[in-house]
Amino acid sequence: MFSFSPTTLLRFRVSAGLASLTGFAVLAGCGSSYTAPTPTTVKDRVFISNQLISSGLPSGEINIVSGQNDQSQTFISTGGAPGAMLLSPDKKHTLVLDSSTRNAYSIDNTLGGVAGNTVFADVPSSVVAWSDNATAYAAIRNAGTISVFDYASTYTVKNNIAVPTVRTLVMSHNGNVLLAFSDDSNSVTFIDTSKDSNGNPKNVVQPAITGFDRPVYGVFTNDDSKAFILNCGFECGGTAASVTVLDIATMTPGASVSLPGATFGLLDPSGNTLYVAGSC
Predict the structure, then answer these.
(1) What span, in angstroms and rounded, lies between the C-alpha atoms of 94 and 45?
(2) Phi, psi for 85 (deg, rounded to 5)
(3) How far is CA 182 from the centre of its chain?
(4) Contact 165, 141 (CB under 8 A)
(5) Are 234 and 279 contacting, i.e. CB atoms less than 8 angstroms apart?
(6) Does the predicted TM-score (pTM) go above 0.70?
């Protein structure tokens, strides 16, 4: 038995080699013991990124827990301090960011092991996956770049897009638009990631969209026609928190709704209700 303080929990079900997202939460800590079935026998899986390195142990790991009985089954060693996790669009891979090794680990969800890893110039703070199930974008804040990398075969950085102090990335559902949010900025970087004639993302950086108040996050509508931009405001050194509607086709900010705080948001499946979290 031992105690740990995981940072992120990701749950999905494995069936016929594929996985489907069923939930997301943050876990404060618990105790666990290990048995060792093969990963494919754990159908309803919960991945927990466990930063054991922060407790003085050599490295962290990804704990695999059964979602059916909440029992820890086995673990995946990463050799670092794993944090935020992201499922690929086809649910075959889980990307795991690691601040201690400046890595993005690519976990094969069918085999339950690390398939490869990508090393960046500095610490990755955010990651999103493109629609081809092989390409991803990582925000490298201290380097002032968005690294475009392959997470399915070569695990290499293919390109770097210059965006000063970029911290958070948000991708549209269709993969055509990437929004980048930088520290201490009142603008949003809009990148055209639609497919070119060769089927690759265009990665064309548009002029900065202004008119915001320390924007830190965005939530796309279900049809990707608009995005709700969360203005952190006073909490992030600005004036006042709010949510501003951004029209994607015209790249024009619209109406705003004032809020006590706005740093993260989720849109319900119907697309009619936006839940926003923040501090005053």
Answers:
(1) 12
(2) -125, 155
(3) 15
(4) yes
(5) no
(6) yes
**Residue 155 near residue 117, CB atoms below 8 Å:** yes
For 199-254, how does the pLDDT look when each residue is reduced to its tens digit (9 = 90+)?
999 999 999 999 999 999 999 999 999 999 999 999 999 999 999 999 999 999 99
CA-based max dimension of the chain: 56
Count other Cβ atoms within 10 Å, centred on residue 230: 30
Structural tokens at position 265: 């948001």
- Whole-angstrom Cα distance, residue 99 to residue 234? 28
Q: What is the CA radius of gyration of the chain?
A: 19
Check: CB of residue 138 under 8 Å from CB of residue 126.
yes
CA atoms within a 13 Å half-sphere pointing along the CA-CB vector of 265: 29
Is 120 exposed, middle or buried (CB count within 10 Å of its CB: 0-12, 13-18, 19+)?
A: buried
User: What digits encode the pLDDT tens for the residues 32-73?
Assistant: 333 344 555 677 888 888 887 666 666 788 888 888 887 776
Measured in whole angstroms, the distance separating CA 187 from the mean position of its chain's CA atoms is 21
User: Which of 50, 84, 268, 62 has its CA nearest to residue 168?
Assistant: 84
DSSP 36-100: ---GGG--EEEEEEE-GGGGTSS--EEEEEETTT--EEEEEE-SS-EEEEEE-TTSSEEEEEETT
β-strand 145-150 against 204-205: which pairing, if any?
unpaired
The answer to whether 278 and 263 are in contact (CB under 8 A) is yes
Structure tokens at 27: 């876990």
